[in-house]
Each structure stands twice: as structure tokens, then as C-alpha cells.
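Our preliminary data section would be incomplete without showing what the modeling component actually yields. Below, a chain of 222 amino acids is followed by its predicted structure, encoded as C-alpha cells that our downstream tools consume directly.
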Amino acid sequence: MYKKSLMLVIVVSCFVGLFSQENKSALGAVTMSAIFPGSGQMYLGQNTKAGVMMAADIISLFSLYRFTRESNSLSDNFQVFAYANAGLDRGRSNEIYNLAHRWRSSEEYNKAMELWARNRFLLILNEPELYELAMYVNSIKPEDSWDWEKESHFLEYRRIRNDRQRYDIYRNFAVGALIVNRLISTIDAAIFANRLNESNSQLYTLPDFDNKGFSLIYEVRF
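Predicted structure:
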């Protein structure tokens, strides 16, 4: 408890020190904005812009939490549903659940794999050993088998998994929004702080071809 209180005092003291400076630091504004978008703008006195960026970050964080929770819940749901209606044990690999999404039974899938392997490795290449290896690698094992006896159950399973995929996409958008909001906030804070101080420092970006992205560079001239 004492350590937590001490850390809180230190953090508050640092923020008070930053906000009390007459000459606003571009580096301080950038650092604050990178941690929590809008805080750098508030430090620089741009309260309206700070409120917008903070609200956007809070909404994105809430959305990320909600979409992650929904995705995890639906992931549990389709596993329970597959176990109850197709006999597919829970905790199987994603590959098995993906196959159960496309094939009505593991037996139907195994027959298709057998036909493919026979045509390729026996009729065309005449390689019995490769045929046996392909069947061993691609066949569904008994412990991973399933059978959708009812078409309605098969379609419902696909619907649940499609919903889970949709929430995964939403979650990725929320993560992207968090990253973009921080990027915009840090660049805006640095530019405004430089204009406010009329300093010899500048912030700019350069393409980073090795990492297929951009480098954010803060330069101070003495």
C-alpha cells in the first residue's frame, strides 16, 4: 500500500511540474500524448482538442474490451455447440474447427483427401509411399472427428463462427483506432509545442524501407 501511494505521489508531482513550466517541452508533450492521447494537448493548453482525443481513446478502449469479450464468448459457444451437436470434443485446434466449418463430417473430408491423394500420388506419380504419407498427414484422427447430422446445426455453427470472426475484425479496428489516435496526438503535440516555443527543435517522419514503415524523428539543433 505504501509503495502504491508513493508511486501516485511521484506521478502527480511529475504532472504538476510539467504543467507548471512556462516553456512547454515538445518532448514532454509527445511523451504524454503517446501514453494517453490528448494529455499532451491539455499540457499545451489545447483543452478542446484534448477532450476530443481523450474521448476517442476512451471509446476505443471500451470498444476493444467489448469486442474482445464478445469474441471470446462466441469462441466458447461454437466449441460447446460443436461438441453437443457434432460430437467434436472441446479444445481442438483451430484447423479442426475450420474444417468442421467447411465439411459436414470428418468422414466426408477423409474421403475427399483419399481421392485427391490417390489421383496425385498413385495414378499420376505412382508413388505409394508418398500416398501413405499424405493420408497420414491429412486424414482426420478419430479423436478429432465430427458429424453434423442435421443441416440446421451445421448452418448454426457456421453462423456462430462468422459472428466471432466479425467481432475479431471489429477488435482489430479498435486496436487500429488506438494506434492512429496516439500517432495523431503525438505529432500534433510536437508541432504545436514547437510553434509555441519557437524553438530550434523539430519533429518529422522519414520512410523506413527495411521495416516497411516510417520513422518518427525528434531533432534539436544547438
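The two ends are 45 Å apart (CA to CA). The longest helix spans residues 151-197. Preliminary results of this kind motivate Aim 1 of the renewal.
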